[in-house]
């Protein structure tokens, strides 16, 4: 039984705080003069008709206050006329704000291109954003804000920790969610088929990282460091488990730092005491830059490898020359993708800056949603979700895109990049068979 269909108590409850959006169930429950809710339906004859009339009157008042509230949708993109609203939840405040701004700009580039080509089913695409601040609480609030603003589909999600609590909110309205950067496996494992990714998964990246460190860096002793966020902890555990299962190396350290600090020398010193051949840091770019800088100041020799949240240019600004030779596992960056050259040009023309690492995956997320809405000839969530599952080999700027049954992107995705001449550049990747390491060729 749904929660909103359960028999209410006989206690009179106060109105919801937003009186403009009174739910019909609440209106019915609280419209009877006796205050006994559904129990009043036990009366018969004229009394019953009086109670029902009051209930219907209350519903009508509610519908006049919010015309579309009973339909569970808002005016704008959720109907079959006007602009089609695609919501973009990203961090616009906090340490990850630069990544969020980059993703939002990429979404707008994609929407502008779709609109210039005639839109979708004769309608324009409109991008609406909400700040999730990379936090669980604000992630849920951002999701509700986007739905209240009429979003019929979602493209974004930089931090897994903010995306996970948003899932049930989108799910209750059957709104499809295409992730551009949130890589925690739980997002598609429990997404009930309504969640998709243009990016990869942490378990696949963890396996890739483990193989790279043991194959290419010849590591026998590996330290793994995360920051206790949903994303970072998941990637750290995936890498550590892959190392243990392969039996090619020993995990000598697995722990977390406290994000937002300015001094990580105690953490680095503790890692050094385990004499690792390499340390793998799976947190975000703000801390990665400090770790590189302070590692150099301490004169530590073990290499530091990072995950895909450490390829932001902020790392280079923070670490300076200490970032030289730094390696990170990541999905291909815009400059490493031959198919992304036109996007890079458009992005730079509109923003005056180079696109960040996840910009291309957001661009593709918006484009693939536009195709699905066009194929469905509807903005109905169930129909758009069905169309997304039917997409095969969509020509994205990040390569061909197809989704498996869970909504994950099919195929090999991860590469390594290294810092050379003050910028991230492609380094090594596995061949199409996934068996041999080859150089990443410049785009």
From TrEMBL:
Superkingdom of origin: Bacteria
Q: Name one Pfam family in it.
A: Peripla_BP_6
InterPro entries membership: Leu-bd, Leu_Ile_Val-bd, Peripla_BP_I
Q: Which SUPFAM superfamilies does the entry link to?
A: Periplasmic binding protein-like I
Leucine-binding protein domain location is 84-407
Q: Which Gene3D superfamilies match?
A: 3.40.50.2300
GO BP term, example? amino acid transport
Give UniProt keywords alphabetically.
Amino-acid transport, Signal, Transport
CDD domains linked to this entry: PBP1_ABC_LIVBP-like
Keyword Transport carried by entry: yes
The answer to whether UniProt assigns keyword Signal to this entry is yes
Q: Which family does it belong to?
A: Belongs to the leucine-binding protein family.
Q: What is this protein called?
A: Branched-chain amino acid ABC transporter substrate-binding protein
Q: Which organism is it from?
A: Lentzea tibetensis
